[in-house]
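thought: user wants a sequence for this fold. calling inverse folding tool.
action: design(structure=
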């Protein structure tokens, strides 16, 4: 491969320096911002969190006053022969108000558990945000890498085509053998096959980018440096143990499970509530109607309506429930134990993720340096082999092998740069530092704060309060044309 391949690499994979992007180009920040606005997985996670928020007012409702009203219209079809004042029909209405006073702590602890689960859900939302951003970064870097590989593969086809023509010309004058021509033809065929494969990989990378971001990639620019990368794995682990959202969610769920034990135990305790009620009954003029005009009976003013008001205190003391409260509490204790073990499992997983990501990042950085040296050495080697071939000291196969070694080193360098950036971002995500605020997206007014919705619904009382009908907020990609393997040209 000739020297013309080196500018292609530097143009497509220029390290990690942030450069000014043309108006028609996409930057990593723009891709992350668009995914933050339109990614369906992220939008679904936000909706799920809003559903979790409603757990708090649901639990609070058990400790709030309740009002019930009932009404009935009755026809008495068969009256007793000895009941001279029995009515023929009646309307009754009742209104009852109940105010819970004491529930053994069930409501209080259920509300506390619900609030802990809200906190856990918010941490889960952070984790989803980090996961989506990690996928976007990987997809972004995959497009850049595969564009570079397509450029290198195309350059390799051009170089080998030129080599084949030169080899054929030398064969015609008897300077080379038919074997040399066949070797050149074989390498060109392989390079053309690799070029097609690279094009297919680029198309797949671009389609994956569309699925995550919601728009087609246009001349993706080199990404900016990653902020806050740790100096050693111990620093990374310490940050992750404090900020990793999966670990925070596990801890919050363990706290909630502890409150569930008290909720279950409250089933053995008394219940106290205040109550008042109003009752109204109207016989619609039919009470005593059959005997009002009987002269043998004394005159009577038979009332057709009645009303009553009651008030008092209700106390319910469980005596025996067949072992149900104890079973519920043991069940809650077992689940709390599982939740505590889940905290340790999450901690182990986070530590392993952080250390593995740090190791992968460091390895990729080392591979970058090795690959740079390999590219430089392969270029010198190719120049020397070509020069020696021109004087008959090297065969055509030696030239072809040197060209392939240079291509392999260049592809390795491109891949290492992609892997280093993705591993570095994955490390930040595991440390809990790869969310919208960390990436500077707050300046666009994009940030979604789940606490706002929680504070909105936490104290709601009205039974008929509701949100607008559900509507899709993410964007469809059906109208985006199928991607091709064209690469940006300068």
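)
observation: tool returned 490 residues.
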């Amino acid at each position: 491969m000739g020297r013309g391949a080196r500018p292609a690499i530097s143009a497509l994979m220029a390290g990690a320096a942030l450069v000014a992007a043309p108006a028609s180009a996409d930057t990593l920040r723009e891709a992350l911002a668009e995914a933050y606005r339109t990614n369906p997985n992220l939008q679904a996670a936000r909706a799920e969190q809003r559903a979790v928020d409603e757990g708090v007012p649901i639990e609070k409702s058990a400790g709030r006053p309740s009002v019930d009203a009932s009404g009935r219209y009755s026809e008495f079809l068969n009256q007793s022969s000895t009941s001279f004042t029995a009515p023929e029909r009646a309307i009754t209405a009742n209104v009852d108000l109940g105010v819970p006073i004491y529930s053994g702590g069930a409501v209080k602890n259920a509300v506390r558990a619900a609030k802990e689960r809200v906190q856990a859900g918010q941490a889960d939302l952070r984790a989803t945000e980090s996961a989506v951003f990690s996928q976007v970064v990987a997809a972004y870097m995959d497009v850049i890498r595969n564009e570079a590989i397509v450029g290198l593969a195309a350059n390799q086809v051009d170089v080998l085509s030129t080599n084949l023509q030169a080899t054929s010309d030398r064969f015609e004058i008897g300077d080379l053998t038919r074997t040399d021509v066949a070797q050149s033809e074989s390498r060109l065929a392989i390079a053309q096959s690799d070029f097609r494969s690279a094009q297919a990989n680029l198309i797949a990378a671009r389609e994956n980018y569309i699925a995550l971001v919601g728009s087609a990639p246009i001349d993706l620019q080199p990404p900016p440096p990653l902020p806050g990368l740790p100096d050693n794995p111990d620093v990374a682990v310490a940050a992750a143990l404090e900020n990793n959202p999966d670990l925070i969610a596990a801890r919050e769920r363990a706290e909630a499970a502890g409150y569930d034990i008290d909720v279950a135990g409250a089933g053995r305790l008394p219940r106290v509530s205040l109550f008042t009620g109003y009752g109204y009954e109207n016989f619609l003029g039919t009470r005593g109607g059959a005997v009002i005009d009987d002269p043998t009976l004394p005159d009577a003013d038979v009332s057709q309506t009645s009303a009553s008001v009651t008030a008092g205190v209700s106390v319910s003391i469980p005596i025996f429930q067949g072992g149900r409260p104890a079973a519920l509490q043991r069940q809650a204790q077992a689940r709390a134990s599982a939740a505590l073990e889940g905290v340790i499992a999450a901690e182990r997983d986070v530590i392993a993720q952080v250390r593995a990501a740090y190791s992968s990042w460091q390895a990729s950085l080392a591979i970058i340096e090795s690959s740079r040296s390999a590219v430089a050495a392969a270029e010198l080697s190719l120049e020397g082999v070509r020069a020696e071939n021109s004087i008959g000291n090297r065969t055509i196969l030696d030239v072809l092998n040197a060209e392939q070694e240079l291509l392999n080193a260049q592809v390795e360098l491109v891949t290492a740069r992609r892997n280093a950036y993705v591993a570095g971002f994955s490390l930040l995500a595991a440390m809990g530092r790869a969310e919208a605020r960390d990436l500077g997206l707050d300046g666009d007014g994009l940030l979604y704060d789940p606490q706002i919705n929680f504070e909105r619904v936490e104290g709601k009382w009205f039974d008929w309060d509701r949100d607008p009908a559900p509507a899709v907020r993410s964007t469809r990609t059906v109208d985006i044309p199928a991607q091709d393997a064209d690469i940006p040209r300068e």
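thought: summarizing for user.
answer: Here is the designed sequence. The beta strands are 66-75, 89-102, 271-282, 305-316.
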